[in-house]
Write a structure and sequence with these properties.
With 145 residues, the chain is mainly alpha-helical. The protein has 2 domains: 1-92, no CATH class; 98-145, no CATH class. The protein has helices spanning 30-39, 44-51, 55-64, 66-91, 97-109; strands at residues 122-124, 127-131, 137-141.
């Protein structure tokens, strides 16, 4: 069953040992659940639809089994990896400085939190500022035309 307007995950992101979903598989078939989670980027609702079962029942099954929970999280990570790839491409696009600026803002205020960039960041149309908590502040102003 294909989802409208979505692409299947790239083969390089999928585990090599995924089994095909057999006809009539449901929320009790762990291998079918695993494959469906990867096929739907970890989205339990879409996986349930593909397996023709209730999302709540599928979510409970996934929460009960650590291996399925790990597969759900790994499947979700696939789409995050692809989104990060888009951000990297935007950061490197010298022909579109507006896209580079937006990508840089996103990276600094979200992914950059681990490095202290976004911990106390306040975003504004003209830029953003950061504080290290000891009174030191960094302000970044975006150049406008």
């Amino acid at each position: 069953m294909r989802r409208p307007h979505t692409k299947d995950p790239s083969i390089e992101y999928l585990p090599p040992d995924l089994a095909p979903i057999p006809y009539g598989a449901g929320a009790e078939d762990d291998e079918a659940i695993r494959t469906s989670l990867y096929a739907n980027f970890g989205n339990v609702g879409l996986a349930a639809k593909q397996l023709r079962c209730l999302p709540g029942a599928l979510a409970r099954r996934i929460e009960m089994l650590p291996s399925l929970k790990a597969d759900r999280d790994a499947a979700r990570r696939m789409i995050v990896d692809q989104a990060e790839q888009v951000i990297v491409e935007q950061l490197q696009d010298e022909e579109q400085p507006d896209r580079r600026d937006e990508a840089a803002k996103f990276v600094l205020t979200s992914l950059g939190k681990q490095l202290g960039w976004g911990a106390t960041a306040t975003s504004a149309a003209a830029g953003f500022s950061l504080s290290d908590g000891s009174g030191k502040q960094l302000t970044v102003k975006w150049q406008t035309e």
